[in-house]
Amino acid sequence: MIILFVDFDYFFAQVEEVLNPQYKGKPLIVCVYSGRDKTSGAVATANYEARRLGIKAGMPIKRALEIAPNAIYLPMRKEVYAEVSDRIMKILRNYAEKMEVASIDEAYLDITSKVSNFDEAYSLAKEIKEEILSKEKITVTIGIAPNKVLAKIIADRSKPNGIGIVKPEEIKEFMKTIKIDEVPGIGEVLSKKLEEEGIKTLVDVINFPFSKLEELIGRAKANYLVKLVTNQYNEPVIERERKPHGRYLTLPYNTRDVEVVFPHLKRAIDEAYDKVKGIPMRITVVAILEDLEIKSKGKKFKHGISKERAYLEAYKLLKELISEDRRKVRRIGVRLDDIITGKGLDSFF
Length: 349
Known about the structure:
It is a single chain. This protein is an alpha+beta fold. The chain has four domains: 3-10 and 79-168, Reverse transcriptase/Diguanylate cyclase domain (Alpha-Beta Plaits); 12-77, MutS, DNA mismatch repair protein, domain I (3-Layer(aba) Sandwich); 178-229, Orthogonal Bundle (DNA polymerase, domain 1); 246-348, Dna Ligase, domain 1 (2-Layer Sandwich). 39% of the residues lie in helices and 23% in strands. It has helices at 11-19, 48-51, 61-67, 78-93, 118-136, 148-157, 171-177, 188-196, 210-217, 219-229, 258-275, 307-323, and strands spanning 3-8, 28-33, 41-46, 72-75, 98-103, 106-110, 140-145, 163-165, 246-255, 279-289, 294-300, 329-340. The strands form three sheets. Strands 5-6-1-7-8 form a five-stranded mixed β-sheet. A four-stranded antiparallel β-sheet has the order 9-12-10-11, covered by helices on one side. Helix 9 (210-217) crosses helix 10 (219-229). It starts with a strand and ends in a 9-residue tail after the last strand. The relative contact order is 0.10. Mean pLDDT is 90; it is low at 342-349.
């Protein structure tokens, strides 16, 4: 197998830099605000200027402000990032025999049938990077290896904006360099547990009793590490894509008139329901305003809601959203979540 792992560099923050070029080169932090007060919440991601100051994902915003009081702090705009992600994923799909979308900013590509060897894979990776940069102004890092795990590890080491490669003949030596906390799926808690037992690198697993390893981290994880270190790990790329159950439409002109906006929202609901396989229990109305800021209002139900009920609830949410903000709406959309699938859906209405 020849696998590419594609990782969009500091993605949320990079999208903000593309949309707002004045942020480039300055410490930029994208945050998830809890709403309790102006500084409650956590860091979602940060650009490399902010990371060099010590900012990390998951850090409380209050702590980030202590470390980098002069950085630019922005609220997370997931709908915007999702649109950019979808466009990049479409580019990637053209290069892959099979593609597995791992998250909004990561994907595995099986290119075994697309290239003859790892040198050609490297050239293909360069081509992918150039196309994404040309079309979306986004840099990505790519790892190339005979399996998914090694591709991810070498990509992580090659950030930002790099290409890392592990050829089959290099695997044995490469294994010796892998620290146990670098292995995907072995989090902070497990890696500390293993390090306390003397397993500091992946190759340390070879001489460690399997029964004790199983006792420490469970059979599945123990088997995973043994297969990986003995080069028997070959989990295939599984065709999988992130399915946003939503639809967004651009209005003919910017407006605050609910009666002008709603027909477009109704059409978005129609198209979203046509795409979704099942019945949603949550509906969110999303408005992209005239200055491109995003506002949303949602409602969760104890049961699935029909399309007709969605019209009524969306109309109410739209009225609330517009009444709470003085700006005009540029685009309108809907997101459907908590999907119920299977038989007997009528019982949920």
